[in-house]
Structures are given as structure tokens and as C-alpha cells.
Amino acid sequence: MTVPSSQKTARKGRPAFNRAADAIARRSIWVCGWVAIAVLVAIFVFLAWNATQALRDVGLWKMLSGTDWYPTIEPARYGFLPSIVGSLWVTGIALLLAVPIGIAGSIYLSEFATGWVKEVTKSVVEFMVAVPSVVLGLLGLAYLAPLLATTFHVSSGLMALTAGLVVGIMSLPTIISISEDALHSVPKDLRQGSLALGNTRWQTIYKVVVPSASSGIFAAVMLGLGRAIGETMVVLMLAGNSGLIISSPLEAARTLTGTIAQEMGEVVSGGEHYSVLFTMGLVLFVITFLINLAADMVLERQRKRWRR
Predict the structure, then answer these.
(1) pLDDT digits (tens, 9 = 90+) for 89-109
(2) DSSP code of 4?
(3) Other CB atoms closer than 10 Å to residue 32's CB: what's the count?
(4) CA torsion angle for 79, 85, 90, 93 (degrees, to 10)?
(5) E-assigned strands of the chain?
(6) Which of 217, 244, 221 is nearest to 302 (CA)?
(7) 55, 109, 217, 226: least surrounded by Cβ within 10 Å?
């Protein structure tokens, strides 16, 4: 039977069309990747450029080790330690809440939940990511702060503990989702081999599954840490914004993000105080970048481990 000339042309043209489409897709992905890197570098350059005046006139070490934050007196004092300590308190409390609950939730989703229960639970966890932080801040302001003030007999519920608990709730979806993916990626052969050796299901989970996914769980905790330390709105609403170095979670605190958000709109553009706030932003940028970089390196290590 003779094949029509139009069909011959289509058969010859389709591979060429597919190759062209693949080349365009590869080039587009390449361009998008470099654009993302360029944006990241541009943010760093922008922060460093605006921080130059403070780095030259005040000095980075003097700002990092300074214990007083009085930007409006003469001479001004730009100590970052009160904000750094406040950030550590809020982030530590958030991780104390989010890590055990997040890992337990991911184990339940990966190993025990089935059917519609699993689908609904995962949907709820993913929906939590989309809840605006200001909404959680309002809920904390209306219910959690008065409750904690009454419980601990303090004059105000606006303190590091309140902010840390709400930030911990905000970090939960990140830890649950990534940990669940890490647990789910553990090969079934390991589970079946453990069960065949006589281990119970619980023994298989904590002796085989969780250790095998430990690097992914660690990455989830690191990303949750990055989420907690970078949160702004909740700490601005609930931490109390005290400029002192605190020694208890029941004291009002100020964080790096809260200081920048609170004062950036009130300073003279181009002045020393303005440049100091950009230096604070640069420090925060470097911290969160290193945390996310460490988490990505651990995740890549796990992917290579299971590709062997």
C-alpha cells in the first residue's frame, strides 16, 4: 500500500518539532535558573550597598556585640544583641513546639494514615501554609496572650513565649510536609526486611524508617528554623518589642525582623540609622541563606543515597 505524501511529511516533521520543543524548554529552564540566581545576588548587593555607611562608620563587630539599642540619642548606640537574643528565644520556643509535633505528624501521615483520612489531613496541613501570618497574630493577640498572662501571672501576654508558640504553629506545615516526603521515600524493601526479621511495626519505624530518613527530617527542621527566624508580622504583634536583653521567655522581646519592620518607616532615608537597619537585614539574609543552603545540601545527600 502506498503511504500518502502528507503522512510522510508529518512523520519526518514530528521528531524535528519535538527536538525544537525540547531545546526551547531546556533553554527556558536555564534562563529561569540564572534569573533566580541573579535576583538572589541583586538582593545581597542591594543590602550590602545600603549597609556600607554603617559598616564603615560604626563597624560590624561593634553592632553585633553591642548590648544597647538607642538609635535616637547622641551618640547613638546600635547594639544588635537585644534583637539577636530575642530572635533566639522566639525561634527556640517555636522549634520546641514544632519539631516533636511535626515529626510525629509526618510519621502518622507516612506510616499509619490511609485513604480519605490521609488526603484530608495532608490538605489541612497544606492549607495551613496559606493562612496569612497576620490572621494567626490576631488569634494570638485575642486568645493566647490573655491566656498565658493569666496562667503565668504576668502583667502582659505580649512576650517571647506567646510569639514563639504562634511561630511554632506556622513552622509546622514545613516540617510535616518535608519530613513526610523523606519518610515516604524510604524503600519498602527495608520495611519488609525488618518485619521479616521479627520486628514489630513500631520497631521498624524507629529502628529502620526514621534513621533512614534522618537526613531529610534534619533538612525539614532546618527549613522550619529558617521559617521561624524570618517571621516578621507575628513577632511584631506578639513579642512585646522590648529593647532589652531578656533572660526569660516570660519577658517582652524584640527580634531582628521586628526591629527592621518597626523602625524602617521612621528613619531618614540615607542616614546612619537607615544604613544600620540594612546591616541588620544583611545579617538576617546571611543567616537564613546559610540555613537554607545547609538544608538543601542535606536533602541532595539523601537523594543521592537512595539513587544508588
Answers:
(1) 999 999 999 999 999 999 998
(2) P
(3) 10
(4) 180
(5) 69-70, 77-78
(6) 217
(7) 55
Q: Which residues are CB-neighbours of 17 under 8 A, at least 6 positions away?
A: none
Q: Is the pTM of this model over 0.70?
A: yes
Q: Which amino acid is at 104?
A: A
Number of H helices, E strands in the chain: 14, 2
Cell of 251: 519577658
User: How does DSSP classify residue 45?
Assistant: H
Q: SS3 for 240?
A: strand
DSSP state of 250: T
3-state SS assignment for residue 29: helix
E strands within 68-182?
69-70, 77-78
Going by pLDDT thresholds of 50, 70 and 90, the confidence category of residue 223 is confident
With vertex at residue 295, the alpha carbon angle to CA 97 and CA 176, rounded to the nearest 5 degrees, is 40
- Count of residues making up the chain: 308
Q: What is the mean pLDDT of the chain?
A: 86
Amino acid in position 15: P
Strand partners, 78: 69
Max Cα–Cα distance, the chain, nearest Å? 97
Closest by Cα among 51, 74, 46 to 276: 51
Residue 199 and residue 128 in contact, taking contact as beta carbons nearer than 8 Å: no
Residue 103 to residues 90, 95, 187, 245, 276: CA-CA distances in angstroms?
Answer: 20, 11, 19, 32, 38
Angle at 85 between CA 82 and CA 88, to 5 degrees: 150
CA-closest candidate to residue 220, choices 82, 101, 140? 101
Angular region, 154: left φ>0, alpha ψ -120 to 50, beta rest = beta
- Coarse DSSP helix, strand, coil percentages of the chain, rounded to the nearest 5 percent: 80, 0, 20
